């Protein structure tokens, strides 16, 4: 028997006796308020950051960024921040200096894990800043790398964008025609999505779309998301 009591759930086995107690935990007024706020954010017509948005990300939350190789300096440069009320790291997306959307990511297993809001799902993308590009090691060997790389998520785009002219996050695994207009290149385009079923399927579809448009395209396949590789490994994937 499982009973729902004021403070939590209590189980009783008629053969073994009491079988444990689990508190309701986060199912509180505060949790319900957060979920209502999340729903309201997703339904708003205009894109705006949470009222309590701050670029001072708590160390306990910034660990998610550190694991992806995003330093505090890079985080500040892109305006990444945190919402204490939503308990999520906020990754803003800007277009010509104007807020075009954001991704809010829970680091404590809140559901949904991601809250995404963009001005135009058919055209919004995150584009890495070429001003943060790192120099390639000068070992006397001339290397050829793609001019543009397409990634799935924002953090992967930031990491890979340190070594290509432009890295674009399509904010998922499917791409709309308007998103492809952001490429602005006549050189080679690389596609490097996450190594799951959706990522593999999306990479094939994007490859076909770009090939039909006359682009030189290559698909990069890896065992992990791009953001979880070291700088040296990212360089190796780009040139092979």
Characterize this entry briefly.
The chain has 240 residues and is α/β, with parallel strands linked by helices. The protein contains seven helices and twelve strands.
Topology (SSEs and partners):
Elements (H helix, E strand, L loop, with lengths): L1 E3 L3 E6 L3 E7 L5 H15 L15 H9 L4 H7 L2 E3 L4 E8 L2 E9 L7 E5 L7 E2 L20 E4 L2 H7 L5 E4 L7 H4 L8 E4 L4 H16 L4 E3 L11 H9 L1
Parallel strand pairs: 9-10, 9-11, 11-12
Antiparallel strand pairs: 1-2, 2-3, 4-5, 5-6, 6-7, 8-10
Mean pLDDT: 87
Give the uncertain stretches in residue-range form: none
CATH topology grouping of the largest domain:
Dna Topoisomerase Vi A Subunit, Chain: A, domain 2
Supply the helix-strand structural class: alpha/beta
Compute the number of strand runs: 12
What does this structure look like?
This protein has 240 residues and is of the alpha/beta class. The chain folds into 2 domains: 90 residues, DNA primase DNAg catalytic core, N-terminal domain; 114 residues, Dna Topoisomerase Vi A Subunit, Chain: A, domain 2 (3-Layer(aba) Sandwich). The strands form 3 sheets. Strands 8-10-9-11-12 form a 5-stranded mixed beta sheet. Strands 4-5-6-7 form a 4-stranded antiparallel beta sheet. The chain has a 3-stranded antiparallel beta sheet with strand order 1-2-3, with no helix packed on it. The radius of gyration is 22 Å and the shape is elongated. The mean pLDDT is 87.
């Amino acid at each position: 028997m499982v009973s729902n009591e004021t403070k939590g759930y209590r189980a009783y086995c008629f053969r073994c006796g009491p079988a444990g107690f689990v508190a309701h935990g986060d199912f509180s007024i505060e949790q319900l308020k957060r979920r209502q706020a999340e729903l309201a954010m997703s339904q708003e017509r205009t894109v705006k950051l949470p009222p309590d948005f701050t670029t001072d990300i708590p160390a306990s939350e910034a660990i998610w960024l550190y694991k992806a190789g995003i330093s505090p300096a890079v985080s500040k440069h892109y305006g990444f921040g945190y919402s204490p009320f939503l308990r999520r790291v906020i990754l803003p997306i800007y277009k010509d200096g104007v807020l075009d959307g954001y991704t809010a990511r829970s680091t404590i297993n809140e559901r949904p894990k991601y809250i995404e809001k963009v001005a135009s799902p058919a055209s919004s993308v995150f584009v890495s800043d070429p001003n943060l590009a790192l120099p390639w090691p000068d070992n006397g060997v001339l290397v050829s790398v793609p001019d543009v790389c397409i990634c799935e998520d924002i953090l992967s785009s930031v990491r890979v964008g340190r070594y290509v002219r432009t890295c674009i996050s399509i904010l998922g695994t499917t791409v709309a025609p308007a998103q492809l207009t952001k490429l602005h290149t006549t050189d080679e385009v690389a596609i490097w999505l996450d190594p799951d079923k959706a990522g593999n399927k999306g990479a094939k579809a994007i490859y076909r779309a770009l090939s039909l448009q006359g682009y030189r395209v290559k698909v990069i396949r890896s065992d992990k998301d791009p953001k979880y590789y070291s700088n040296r490994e990212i360089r190796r994937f780009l040139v092979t």
